[in-house]
Amino acid sequence: MFKNESYADKIIDGKIISLKVLEEVSKSIIDIKAKGLNPSLAVILVGNDPASSVYVRNKKIMCEKVGIKSTEFKLDENINEEQILDLINTLNKDSGTNGILVQFPLPAHINKQKIINKIAPDKDVDGLHPINAGRLMNNVESLVPCTPQGCMIMLKTRHEDLSGKNAVVIGRSNLVGRPMCQLLTNSDCTVTQVHSKTLNIENYISRADILIAAIGIPKFVKAEWLKEKSIIIDVGINRISVNSNGENKKKLVGDVDFEEAIKKVSAITPVPGGVGLMTVACLMRNTLIATKLQM
Ligand code: NAD
């Protein structure tokens, strides 16, 4: 991929790291199955969003691989909120369901927060319920959102001890940016959160030993903004058009200008092949944790 081979060492490989996580999950699942438990995940998909259908299919395949029973509830686009809440209520009470995941986005007429609030906190494998967010804030054991959990595992492959590092998180969503800041704070980093209203964002980025980019703008972060030898975790998944031999093709890129950044930093995650793989692996991990919480 690179003319200079030394760059290869800089890649934090999501494929290798996620496989390791999945191996550990599989082993634990064998152990708890021997105790008569059968970890299971219920996935609720509302409507026909093509990207969501792909994500749900990938989750199902991964469940099969690690030995988790998965059940998909495919609901009509026009279903009303009460019917989804009723289904979640039933799944909350069902002892044969250990994890509940609602695939986002939901149709505009559904109140997302109401749906999240309904999921029993110990079955909330996305870690989005306010009780789990509160537990994370208090640095007590909780179901941690999958993507930031995956980012932490990747970071720790390069630095077991993150204490005292300057970390900058770009983005403040409940799914990525906010829990990411909590996790880094809980690991004794000094954390700065920047977002769409931050002025002179590059001044903050230039001081980051660790940079987490979760924006959703292709190649937003320029190499010249980065600190030498920093570690970059690129959460962004952006589909762009590229012209290859006169043909218009689609390509996935992150929020960081990877090709230029890799020359300057000490380590970086690629897109694809980085954080995305960790997210699914951590969902399996969370389903296992949820099962144990209910034991
Ligand atoms: P979001 O849209 O909810 O949040 C984006 C954040 O970026 C916002 O907090 C906003 O303040 C910030 N932002 C927007 N424009 C900015 C600007 N010009 N300067 C600075 N900050 C700006 O998105 P999200 O759910 O947090 O996801 C972010 C990205 O990560 C998306 O590309 C998404 O597809 C991707 N994502 C990837 C995974 C994965 O598994 N790899 C998981 C979740 C999200």
Cα(first) to Cα(last) distance is 47 Å
Number of helices: 10
Which architecture of the largest domain per CATH? 3-Layer(aba) Sandwich
Strand content: 15-25%
Category by helix and strand content: alpha/beta
Oligomer state equals single chain
Q: What order do the helices and strands follow?
A: HEHEHEHHHEHEHEEEEHEH
Question: What overall geometry do the principal axes of the alpha carbons give?
Answer: globular
CATH homologous superfamily grouping of the largest domain: NAD(P)-binding Rossmann-like Domain
Give a written overview of the molecule:
With 295 residues, the protein is α/β, with parallel strands linked by helices. It folds into two domains: 37-120, Rossmann fold, CATH 3.40.50.10860; 145-273, NAD(P)-binding Rossmann-like Domain (Rossmann fold). It has ten helices and ten strands. It has helices spanning 14-34, 50-66, 81-93, 112-118, 130-137, 146-156, 177-186, 201-205, 258-261, 275-293, and strands at residues 40-46, 69-75, 99-102, 166-170, 190-194, 210-213, 231-234, 238-244, 247-253, 267-268. The strands form three sheets. A five-stranded parallel β-sheet has the order 5-4-6-7-10. The chain has a three-stranded parallel β-sheet with strand order 2-1-3, sandwiched between helices. A two-stranded antiparallel sheet has the order 8-9. Helix 7 links the parallel strand 4 and strand 5 (190-194). Helix 1 packs parallel to helix 10, helix 2 packs across helix 10 (275-293) and helix 6 packs across helix 10. 42% of the residues are buried. The structure holds nicotinamide-adenine-dinucleotide (NAD). The site of nicotinamide-adenine-dinucleotide (NAD) has 23 residues, from helix 10.
